[in-house]
Every structure is written in C-alpha cells, then in structure tokens.
Amino acid sequence: MRARILFVLAALFCLLFIAGKADATGEKSPPIKAEPEESPMVSAKTGNQGSEDPAKTPEAGHGQGGDGHIELGEVLPLWSCIPFACMLLSIALLPLFMPEFWHHHFGKVSAFWTASLVIPFVVKFKGIAFYEIIHIILADYVPFIILLWSLYTVSGGILLRGTLRGTPVVNTVMLIIGTFLASLMGTTGAAMLMIRPFLRANSHRKNRAFMVIFFIFLIANIGGSLTPLGDPPLFLGFLHGVSFFWTLKILPLMLTVSALLLVSYFALDTYFYRKEGIGLSRGDSKKEPLRIEGFHNFLFLLGVIGAVLMSGMVDWGEINTLGVHRSIQDWARDAILIIMGILSLAMTSIRVREDNEFSWAPIIEVAYLFIGIFLTMLPCLLILKAGPKGALSFIINSIQEPYHYFWVTGALSGFLDNAPTYLTFFNTAIGSFYAGLTEAQAVPLLMNENAIYLKAISAGAVFFGAFSYIGNAPNFMVRSIAEEAGTPMPSFFGYIVKYSIIFLIPSFFIVTLLFF
Amino acid sequence: MKFKKILFHTQFRQFAFNSLKTILELKRAGLTEVVLTFVIPREEVAFVPYGGYLKDVERYMRENAKLRFQEWQKTISRMGVGSKIRIKTGIVNAAVLSIAKEEGIDLIVIGAKKRTTFEKVYVGSHILDVLRRSDVPVLMHKYKVRFESDEGVITQTNDRIFERPLIATDWSTPSENAVETILGFKEIAKKGFVVHVIGSKLIKGVEQKEIDHIKNESENRLNAYCLKLKDAGIDAEPHLSIGNPVLEILRLSRETESTMIVMGKTGKDWMRQYWLGGVSHRVAELSELPVLLAP
Fold it and tell me: What is the complex's ipTM, to 2 decimals?
C-alpha cells in the first residue's frame, strides 16, 4: 500500500511537472485554448467577445491561485450548484443514516456527483469548462491534498510514549499544548499526535466523552486558526493569495474562544474528577517516563512550514501546465512537501507508525471526497465570484455585515466541510466588494481594506468546524479512534445538543460582541 | 527447533479450516497448542468518512469469528491439541506479529490470498510484510490452488504438506535455519529435496574451470545438507541447477513432486528487498506450493 501511494504521488508529480516544463519550453502542443470567446453562450450573454481586458482572459492573475471566469459565473444557472449541494448533503447525511453503505461506497458517491456536474459542464462549455476543471485541480486540489498528506505523514511518525495521569490539570495542559501545535502541524496532525496519549492518560477515568469533545473543539479545530498550515480552509485562502502571516490577526479571537473553552473544560473535568473519587495511588504502579519517538520528524515539519512560507514569499515566475499558469514556487513547495513526507516514511521506524496505529485510510478518504467537492463546487464559486451579476446575488446582497459572514460561514461550516464553505464565502466577499476585479487584484484589497470580513470568514470557517462531527475532517478521525479505544461518544445530535450548543455557541456570541 | 505453539491466522477464506487440519499433522512432531487468530482490519470498521466507528459491524465480525473458532476448537481438541482464540482489531500484519510475540509462538501460519484472473501472485502486501519482518518461521499455506501448466489449468490440493519438503539454499545463515526448521517436523517428513541454484549471472564470463570448481563446491555442500537430514531420519536428495533461481526452484518443486518449499529469507540489499522482494518472496508469491520461510 505504502509503495503504491508513493508511486502514484511521485508519478503524478513527475507527470505534471514534465507536462509543465514541456509547455513552458514550447516543446509540446500549445496549451488548451480556453479564451472566453470560445464559448458562444458566454460571449452572447456578456458581450465580452474580443475583450482586451487582461483581467478577463483565462490566464490572467493566476500567480496567486487563479481568478476563474467572471463571465461564466454570470451565465451559470443556480441549479448548476445542485451536484455540490448533493455532494455535501451526502457527506452530511449518509454517514448518519447509512454508515455501512457510505463506508464502502463513498468513492462511488463522490464520483457520481462529480460526473453529474463535469459531463454536462464540459459538453455545454467545452474548452472553457475543461480549463476551469484543470485549473481547480492544479491550483487548489493538488496542493491541498499534498499539504494534508505531508502533514499527516510527518506527524504520524511522531509518537508520544510514557505514562500520563489524566487529572484536570494534566488534561488542560495537554489541550493547551495541542491547541498551539495545531497551527504548526495542522489540526489533523496535532489531533493524531495527541489523541492516543490523551486517551491512554484518561483510560482510568469513567467520564471521558466530554474530554474527547473538548479535544475536538480545541485541537481538531480552533487551535488551527493561526496559520495556513493549521486548518484546510486557511490553506485554501493562502493558495488564493492571503499572505501567510495574515491569519495571525485571528489570534485575539482564537485566544478568547480557547480561554473560554479551557475554563469550561477545567471546571467540568474537576467536577467529574471529584465525583469519580479517583485516589492518587490508582494506576501508579507502572510508570513510564514521557518521551517522544520519531523526534526527527519535527525537522520534516519545519521543512513543511518552510516550504509553505517560501512559496508565499518568493516569485520565481510561472510555468504553463496543461494550459494553467502556476507559479514555479508553488510547484517547488509541493515537491518539497512530497519529499518531506517520503523522508519521514523512509527514516521513521515502521514500529513507531504501527504503535501510532497509523493508517492511510483517512487521508485516502479525504482525497477521494475532496476531488468531488472541489469539482462540484466549481459553478458555485464562479457564480459567487460574479457578484451581483450572478445567480447567487441574493446571498451577496443579504450578507452585509462582518457578523453575517461569521455566522453564515460558521453555520454552514458546522454541517458541511469547512474548507469548501470558506472558499464559497471568500468568493462571496470578493464578489460583493470587488466584482469585476481579478482575484490577484481583489485579495490584497480584501486583506487590507476589509480585513474584518476576511477575519469573520476565516474564524467562522475554522471555529464552527467544531460544531458537529462533520464540520472538519479530523473530527471524525478523533471520534473513530476514541470509540475504538472504548470511549462511548455521543451521537451526532447528542454532540450538538449536549456540547456544541452549550459550550461553543455562547463563546461565539462573545467573540461576535467583542470583535464584530 | 520444535513447533510446539503455532499461530494460525485466518481471514476465513474458503478452505481455511482444511488448511488448519493439515497443520494439525504437526501433533506428531510435538505440536501442543494452536493460537487461532483473526484480525479485523481497522479500515473495515474505523474511519467512516465524516462518520465514526462501525461498532456494530466490529461486534458482528468479532462474534462471528469467535463462533467459527469455537467450532474449529472442537476438531483441534479431538486431535489432542490445545487451542486459544485471539481476535483483535488493527493493522493485520502488525497485529499478527505482535500476537506472535506476546504468545511466544514457534511458527506463524498464514493463508495465501486468492488469485484473481489478473494477478500472478498468491501474496498480498500484509502477508509479504509478515514474511519480511517475522522473527519466527512463517508458513504461507495454500490449500487449494489453480495454476497454469503446459497441460492447461490445474487445480491442486496441498493437504499433506510436510511429507516432501524442498529446501532451497543459498548457503546463507537463514538457509541453515531452514534446514533446522525441517528437522522440527522430521517425524512427519518422508523425503527432503535439497536444492541449490547457481545464478546464471554468477557464472557469466567465468572460465569453465572456475565453473567446475563452483559446481563441485556446491555439490559437496548439498551432500552435507542431505547428510544432516539423513542423520535425522529423513531421506534426502540433492539437486544442483544453473539459471534463474526463482524459476529453477519452481521447476524443481514440480519435477520432484514436492509438497512444500522451505527457504531462508533472502536478499541482502534492503532497498531491492523492500521494493522488489528477494528470491524467497518471489517464490512465495509464485509457487502453487505452501512456502515456509525461516528467518
């Protein structure tokens, strides 16, 4: 399995890189022509035939992730978003109501909704649609999956051994450490690193479900709000031009929510600890000192951070890959991330990974599902980018204030995956404030002139990812590991009613009052 | 070396029980306990995308395995052998190796995977990993196999596997261990075939005199191995061959009508071993016979 994954990753990268190089040197056939003029429907509706505006050509402004076709967004009907809605509803409902079917057939479900969008989209809009599909795969999906894979692989090589005794203080300290690690190694990486030691430390405790839920709140979600590495939505923002350190502006919001949750957690844990009446002597017989194995993986983690930082700081020009212009530094970043993952695999003892119960299954599942999510959300993104001229203008017109963005982005992130939700409202903001500008032009303006809106979208997407099991990918991984370890976890609705509404919503209200 | 305690891992494929029964022959060679092992692959029940853990499915698989094992235990008990059930959820190869360690196992028995139309190998990645990493001998059992021969597709039943073992040796320490392994079931082995293949690459461009020297040296060593087996009461026959080691071992195993291939783990270059597999792994993958690998 490992060999197969490495081979596929390497082959994919080589193929794309060679194609890009060949295109850049003009050795191969010219890139796919995808000028808006090619689509009679588009030009007829928008009258942009022969436009000289560089911002409206498909290859303009792709240095920071590409802009898409504003014209296409103006002509696409609302129902073209149905496959995206169905895809997200499948993710939300099938694990709840048909878990076995979903577990074995989620790839087919994803492929079905993808085909239901891609086939008619390409038949109708031909080259321009093909360009958009290739663009979203190369500019968003590939780097997104490569980052997740490398963080998951590297963090899976770090093993925390030793005896920890789960007292309220120890647990709170673990949650604090994990919360800050999440922004460095990603919520998935931090959650996978910490969850097993956390469960082991508390195996003697009777009430453990609330601990795992606060773990999901803080480490699997809120902690990841400070850097693009932290949570997938922020990395998508980074790919679309939001600078690496901009997300640090969310620090006050993150600290507020984290402090509120940690205080609540400590009080709850202290209450249960006393109620359980656990003596100090219990479980102290076999004490193993704390130690980290696979420590060298922190170097690879630094490599990952450095690569992402580098791609946001340098400008080495662009190469044309399958008709899509991508920055050389973006390819270099992706290559370094793959190398870091491969080095981690090669240099970490297989026993460390086995003791970590490392499995490729979650990352493969995310890869399968997200290709469907990214492709089906294409029309939605294009329509939102068209701003008031698009079929989703009613959303743009009704969402005006920063707190609207925070709560609407959040409400949807809670039940749909937060990465596509972030991108949707990121585009809503661009469409709302800077309709007609390319993404490369609009994003810097959004970061500076309307930073509060971007903060609201970012915080909404990341924070509310904790609202339900389906808000963010690490939530289900943590739940699965906890249940396997014998922790009885609440049901989908039990989680929301007993925990999210009681602890998260009041915290988010306070954030709204203080910051929006 | 005696096989007193055996780990029998199964995924409950067809003929798994028949495989077990053939292994129980080892009772005559000192077998006292069989640890019946079933590992629920974690990916079967865990990490439901955006869901959680399929507790009911796991419980069902666990109970089902337990019931089937309890049935098997009756047969094992009738043969006068003790048994134990171990059911675990996890990574299959890692779980098998860890149970073997915990239980102090002398021999791990694992089933080959079913060959499909497009596959030419009997070994899945989990099995290969167990073969690669085990500290104790591993027997890859293939009870009923279909394979292509010059006379068409043949279905073969490997039910008396310990009777005519073929030992393929490259004179390495694991090869020495392979001979010791056979002595572990000398009570049921009737005849052994000791095989050495001089790799064609080894003698390429080498003078005839040198080739003759290599042949003589190899024959002497083969005879010494045979003598060792004969001393233990097993009739033995040496076979020297030149060519591709994997293909020659497969050919000789058919010509001698062997019932099992016994080898030491081969491969010195770990990169090559990891990515391509050594001779022992290729033989395990391709042979229609059960293959016993000694560490």
Answer: 0.75
